[in-house]
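ok so i was messing around last nite and threw this chain in just to see what happens. nothing serious, just curious
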Amino acid sequence: MKILLSFLLVVFATNIYAQVVKTIEYSGLVHLSKPVALRMLGFSQGDSIDKEMVDKAIKKYFDQGYFNDIWTEFDKNGKLTFYFKEKAIISQVKLKGWKENDDEIKESVIQIKKGTLYDEAKLEAAKKRIIDAISQEGKIDSVVEVETVYLDNGSVKVTFVVNEGEEIIIKKVKYSGVYGLDPDDFDDVIANKEEEFMGWFWGQNDGKMSLRDLEYDNLRIRDYYMQYGYLDAKVDEPFVRVDFDNYSADMSYLIAEGEPYKITNVVIEQLKHVVDDAKLQDVISLEVGEVFNIKTFRDDAKKIKTVVADLGYAFVQVIPDLKKNKEEHTVEVVFRVIPGQKVKIRNVLISGNNRTLDRVIRRELYLAPNDIYSLTDLRDSRASLGRLGFFDGNTIEEKRIDNKTMDLIVKVKEAPTGNIQLGGGYDSYGGLLLNISVNDRNIWGSGINIGVKAERSQTAQSYSFTIANPRLNDSDFSGNFSIYRSDFDYIDYSVLTAGLNLGVGHRFTRHISGYIGYGYSENSYTFGSDFNASVYGGINPFESYTKSGVTVSAKWDNTDDYYLPRRGFTLSQSIEKSGLGGTANFIKTRTNFAKYYGLNDFVGFDAIFRYKARLYTIIDNGYIPLAEKFYMGGIGSVRGYQAYSLSPTLADATATDGIRRVGGTQTFSNNLELSFPLIPKAKMRFVVFADWGTILDNTTEDLLTNNISRAGYGTGLEWFSPVGPIQLMFVRPIAPQDGDQTSTFEFTMGQRF
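result:
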């Protein structure tokens, strides 16, 4: 009887909950379409359903992550309705108290974008990532709160309110077990260093702990040991003791040095012999009998790879090996070379050039379809594109098709190369500047440079038209033509000049180019006061003159960028011979050198070292006009002194200050610079520099001063502004002399850094 009763109750319950659904409707559904929602149900109209089937359907919908609440109604007519309350959409994401305007942090750390659905779990995960990121900067006890504001349109504004914790300052770093090396040298490689006296001052260690670097510092010390042959060196992770009362820390390293190893042999093993071993040995710097150096070892492996890859073996592997003799502390160095197959370029694809023509880019590439791969050609192609100055950056990706073919994907990012400017500015020497100019170094994407300019300032007036084609008909020849008129104020006089220049150049190799040009100009002086001709040996130095001459020049340039090089050097030599029909008759030589070296591998950020030098001479062949001589001062020679103010002088009572600057026949100047990223997103950099130069005259008698040497130093800003590269220099002269015209601020625009 009990069994029968139980059976009847089950049948009765089933009849209550199992019903036929005749219609299915949705209310409040936005993110899912009705057809998709119906496919997810597991049943359809006309089916018999129960509570469990409806619950499963609701769970499927919830799993999509779009909804805060879902419920159903089932009326007596068999109509099943699903009601949805969707999550709000996040329309604004803000940071307050930490990197408020850093969009990159929002993308990489917060990882919540506009338009995503409000999800508390995701917000909690973002809070944790923010705290982790701050802790990597060496700060602890940080707090992050989330403020949400529902806007009138139903969306949500989310603000992460950050209260940064305290920085940990390293007071002491101890090393145990160090005998063979000087532990003070470890500061050159580790990131976490103990605080030095006046640690806040530039160049001193501030002692701030960086957790992101802490786990790698012991590896950096071990690598430093291996540069001195200590192949068995062991450096334990640092033991850190933190005092949370004053947020300071002491660190200690336990080191087992071992003994330095000497090289007994350097062996090259080629799996397939593709190049003479002797040629590979020539590029190896490691030598038998010397102490092993891990840095040289790695560099040698790269050199071997380059030699083999230049023969077309794009996928070559160089596997280095060290065979140690622990008893005698010697090592045999083995480079195993696995060349693979020769690789041919199938296609070269170009993207990102919305303006620059494909052919302008292709003519700078040293690899083309059906060429055999060359690693050196690939690197030189990247540098050649950078030297154009048309792009903010470029990459050449190697897309492997199979073991014997690849595609090259050239990606460029267009940079502004021209502007139409009507307005003004300020120049540190010329003062207020008014100009109207149309200039484009890459007009219509053709690579041709055209410029029309009218300019007026307190010290100069100039009008010019210039056209230059660096690759005539896509060949290795270049051509230029310009006409100009200028009125320029030097310190003691002004020169009115009108003339023209034209010439032709040729690129002999990928780094060497030559040029020959002709120039003609008519020049006259104004000097604002009478002068004593007897001071100049009875000769009028302010007599109008014409100049007609030829200039021949050669240049080496293997730098990797036009405006901001990080690698390579430039060396140019020009000789100008005037006297071909004009009154001026002289030979002028100009030698320029610049070396650029990126320091990112050494310091971990985009620092750049620069050295620049200039040597100019002029030889008298009959007549050297005063305006053709050399003057120093300002950007381009010695900063800290007004432009053109440094010159040999004559005593002249008729001059304003009793002296007359007569220019020099020889001048040499050089600059040392260190450039650091300041605000990378704004393309702004910070630079420190020191300048020194000397100038003398060997043609003028009775000089009051000659063989002048001056120096200056300072800091500055380098900015890739929307109107071109700008340099703002804050300078101080070193030991200026009485009568020197010094400056504290200098400015220029459009020059290479």
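not much to say yet. The radius of gyration is 37 Å.
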